[in-house]
Write a structure and sequence with these properties.
The complex is a heterodimer of chains A (about 475) and B (about 100).
Chain A: H1 4-23, H2 28-53, H3 58-80, H4 86-110, E1 118-119, E2 122-123, H5 125-153, H6 166-187, H7 190-208, H8 216-238, H9 241-265, H10 269-273, H11 282-287, H12 299-307, E3 311-316, H13 318-323, H14 326-338, E4 342-347, H15 357-364, E5 372-374, H16 375-378, E6 387-391, H17 400-403, E7 422-427, E8 447-451, H18 454-464
Parallel strand pairs in A: 3-4, 3-6, 4-5, 6-7, 7-8
Antiparallel strand pairs in A: 1-2
Chain B: H1 5-25, H2 32-43, H3 47-54, H4 65-92
Classes of the chains: A alpha/beta (about 475), B mainly alpha (about 100).
Chain lengths: ~475, ~100
């Protein structure tokens, strides 16, 4: 048994180690060391908790068993999961953090003596407020993440689900949560606590269903942030510095990521959260559907164009992940490089379904990270490049965002793909992208459409090179 | 009048938000996915609360309603801790620099 002061210091150490873990991610070289700091911080936190309770009875054995059981499931998932499924995995993990927060809050509510929070029916006011906020946010994180998971897995349709009066109902529920917390603090009634949890689960569900597939980067970041605030809420209840620090770190991390993602789409956070793109624009798309000529080609034409290029920029998008084309793509690039063609990759901030999604897939395919560039770094290079190879991206290349103030995506930062001498656009059909608008790039003089599955087309091009 | 310890915790919380703000802005965009998986893993430090809850039963009665929720939370958090750190490790191992031409 160690003193409360000593354990508080150890919790502080583990909090600092978590800060270093995030700090390490500022560059790929230091990132592995950062992850190690994170693991160390976790080990310290868990060990100190055991030592400070000083309870090595039969309960201790069960605790170890549950850690091992959960740990082996987690390790198994971590080794088996394909990299293309990372967004689902992260959403799934968020839901677990949320649910764990809810369970800890329930446990503390039922047995406050164990946490030094007072007695049943007479919990300290401050603790009760912190506990109920932690539980509510945790519940929202849980049900929201489950919906995000189902949408990403394709079990649930990725298109926004909206109904009349949705925002009104959501607002009503959010207000009722505040009132419930207030009443709970007045009466300490356990029934109110259960109702609070149920209502929070419901709002998490309702908040995420109107959000469509391509807005998932914002949603996942937002849920990341929520899981942090939930942990912080519980941290206040338990008076645990490690949890408070971590909760704040994760909360602000998720918030920053959501901000970056929203900026990448030039939409406000509320605009994304309040639901679907296409919903309001539908009429204008349908009226605008005149036939325009497109040039389409085959793998042979594409190979010819690239062989005669001296520099090629690759623009990957979610379609590459769907088609699992990243390995085929890297093989194509290897062949190009053998012919002394300079190749780089251009990544739009919201390409894919979560922040950094494309980078992970390219890294998996052994693409060195110093060939991969962010939008601001590479956008000026398109004017000097010979060929842009767009694979699985759409809206993020649409020049309309720069030219047409009427367009729903006007103002969104886009890759200046059209400035290249020629553009190769791999796509299965001419159908519009997520924003529901036509891509002007399809009809440009210098664009060659390659209608095929991304992976198959890339393989065919490699054969023809 | 003495200062409520809550104020100290609140100070830690607010300052940590600022630390998080500056640290996360310095994370390179190409590592945003590992950032999410590692934040996931570290937020599972909530396991400390779960352990306290799990150990709240006495030796005659290890499982009461409160400790069962604790045990469940331990398992969930453990999935996250192991899964989160290991998958981050796996991802980070893939980020390689260009091979130097010989």
């Amino acid at each position: 048994m160690i003193s409360a002061n000593l354990s508080a210091i150890f919790y502080l150490v583990s909090g600092v180690l978590f800060i270093l873990a995030l700090r390490g991610l500022s560059s790929p070289e230091t990132s592995r060391q950062g992850n190690f700091f994170g693991i160390l911080g976790m080990i310290i936190a868990i060990a100190v908790t055991f030592l400070s309770t000083g309870n090595f009875s039969s309960g201790f054995i069960f605790v170890l068993c549950f850690i091992l059981a959960g740990g082996s499931i987690g390790a198994f998932i971590a080794y088996k999961i394909p990299m293309t499924a990372m967004p689902e995995l992260v959403a799934g993990f968020h839901s677990l953090v949320g649910l764990a927060a809810v369970f800890v809050a329930i446990s503390a509510f039922l047995n406050p003596e164990a946490f030094n929070l007072g007695t049943v029916g007479n919990i300290k006011l401050g603790s009760l407020i912190e506990m109920s906020i932690g539980a509510a946010v945790g519940a929202i994180t849980f049900s929201g993440s489950v919906i995000a998971f189902l949408k990403l897995q394709g079990i649930m349709s990725g298109s926004p689900i909206t109904f009349k009066g949705q925002h009104f109902i959501n607002a009503l529920i959010l207000i009722s949560i505040v009132i419930l917390i207030y009443l709970l603090c007045l009466t300490q009634s356990s029934n109110l606590f259960w109702i609070l949890l149920a209502v929070s689960f419901l709002i998490g569900f309702l908040l995420i269903i109107p959000i469509g597939g391509a807005d998932m980067p914002v949603v996942i970041s937002m849920l990341n942030s929520y899981s942090g605030w939930a942990a912080a809420g519980i941290g206040f209840t338990l008076e645990n510095t490690a949890l408070i620090i971590t909760g704040a770190l994760v909360g602000s991390s998720g918030a920053i990521l959501s901000y970056i993602m929203c900026k990448g789409m030039n939409r406000s956070f509320f605009n994304v959260i309040l639901g679907g793109f296409g919903a309001t624009e539908e009429t204008s798309i349908n009226s605008n559907k005149e036939q325009r000529p497109v040039k389409s080609g085959n793998a042979d034409d594409a190979a010819f164009l690239m062989k005669n290029a001296s520099s090629v920029i690759i623009v990957p998008g979610y379609g590459m992940a769907v088609a699992q084309a990243q390995h085929a793509l890297r093989e194509m690039v290897d062949t190009l490089k053998k012919n002394d063609i300079k190749v780089s990759y251009a990544i739009h901030p919201v390409a894919g379904r979560m922040p950094g999604h494309m980078n992970v897939l390219l890294a998996e395919a052994n693409v060195p990270y110093d060939e991969v560039f962010e939008l601001e770094e590479i956008n000026n290079d398109f004017a000097n490049a010979d060929v842009a190879f767009v694979i699985g991206a759409n809206d993020v290349t649409n020049p309309v965002a720069k030219t047409d103030p009427q367009s729903p995506i006007y103002g969104m930062p886009v890759l200046d793909v059209e400035k290249c001498k020629s553009v190769l656009f791999v796509k299965r059909s001419l159908s519009p992208g997520y924003a529901g608008i036509d891509n002007d790039l399809f009809y440009k003089e210098n664009t060659l459409m390659l209608f095929a599955d991304a992976k198959k087309m890339t393989e065919d091009i490699t054969k023809n090179l | 009048m003495e200062i409520d310890p809550l104020i100290f915790r609140l100070s830690i919380f607010i300052l940590s938000i600022f630390v998080g703000y500056y640290v996360v802005w310095s994370v390179t965009p190409s590592l945003h996915t590992p950032l999410m998986s590692v934040t996931n893993a570290i937020s599972s430090v909530i396991i400390v609360g779960a352990i306290i809850a799990g150990l709240s039963g006495d030796s005659n009665n290890v499982f009461n309603t409160s400790s069962i929720f604790g045990f469940l939370a331990i398992a969930l958090a453990a999935i996250n801790i192991f899964g989160g750190f290991l998958v981050t490790q796996r991802m980070l191992a893939m980020y390689k620099k260009k091979k130097k031409d010989k």
